[in-house]
């Protein structure tokens, strides 16, 4: 017959191993020492192996089998603590899982900071994360696949949704440093870009079907996602607009250059929190919305971003002669 130790037996075993003696374990567990000894004896009988060496030593010492069992006991009792915490949280109204859809327009640093704190605050809550383009965030919320959405592209008001502006982002036209447009030492005109390949993201949600944003070239390559667009622009295969958070490091390093193109609308894009009216967020999802609001309120605006990039382009001052 396979051994079937109880959780109580494992708890007593773990306490004896951690306190170093049966007497110390009895005090910790508030049980008679004889009860502790009897429990360990029953556990050893079930497992058909000794867990402690008792002869010739003042304190019980774990056998090799006992050392191996100790790790199993810790893992099982740890899982039990997680289950107890989850049950307690559910009784208090905490969600078992939060599904969130986040736009690529949301700065990745803000997203990582929020999710890091979320894990610390709500260790029992599972997370289902989707990162989407354009109308995908709104679609995921409306379909119920996401509890909340953090993004833009709220193109058409929907009475079944609650949206709140919680921040902003913006896009800038960029190209690789060896792209022909990057070599033009003056502000670009529409004529300059018309015949150059522009990389454009196709909205898989269909919400922007028939609408193009800042598509200025006659030649376009349409891609499915912003990550592919980013890599193709860096490879010099075309020019296009990228969210500031995605290209920030590339502009600093010189892997991309900003195109001075007045015809490209470079205004700030609002970032919203979204949820279904009939599905108000629980404590964890509500906290996440407020955490994003706080992080996004500290993100640089477009003027600050341009000032930082201009500062990087300034030549270093000459070294003073000794």
Chain-wise SSE layout:
Elements: H1 7-19, H2 22-29, H3 33-47, E1 52-53, E2 61-62, H4 64-91, E3 97-103, H5 108-121, E4 126-132, H6 136-142, E5 148-151, E6 161-175, H7 190-194, E7 198-201, E8 220-223, H8 226-234, E9 240-243, H9 244-253, E10 257-258, E11 268-276, H10 283-296, H11 302-313
Parallel strand pairs: 3-4, 3-5, 7-8
Antiparallel strand pairs: 1-2, 5-11, 6-9, 6-10, 6-11
Helix pairs in contact: 1-2, 1-3, 1-4, 2-3, 5-10
Description:
By secondary structure, the chain is an alpha/beta fold. 42% of the residues lie in helices and 19% in strands. It is built from 11 helices and 11 strands. The chain has helices at 7-19, 22-29, 33-47, 64-91, 108-121, 136-142, 190-194, 226-234, 244-253, 283-296, 302-313, and strands at 52-53, 61-62, 97-103, 126-132, 148-151, 161-175, 198-201, 220-223, 240-243, 257-258, 268-276. Strands 3, 4, 5, 6, 9, 10 and 11 form a 7-stranded mixed sheet that branches. The protein is elongated and about 90 Å long.
- Average pLDDT taken over every residue: 83
Helix/strand structural class: alpha/beta
**Content of β-strand:** 15-25%
Helix content: 40-55%
Helical stretch tally:
11
Largest sheet: 7 strands, mixed
DSSP E strands, number: 11
Order of helices and strands: HHHEEHEHEHEEHEEHEHEEHH
Kindly provide the radius of gyration, computed on alpha-carbon positions and rounded to a whole number of angstroms: 30 Å
CA(first)-CA(last) distance: 88 Å
Write down the overall geometry: elongated
Extract low-pLDDT stretches: none
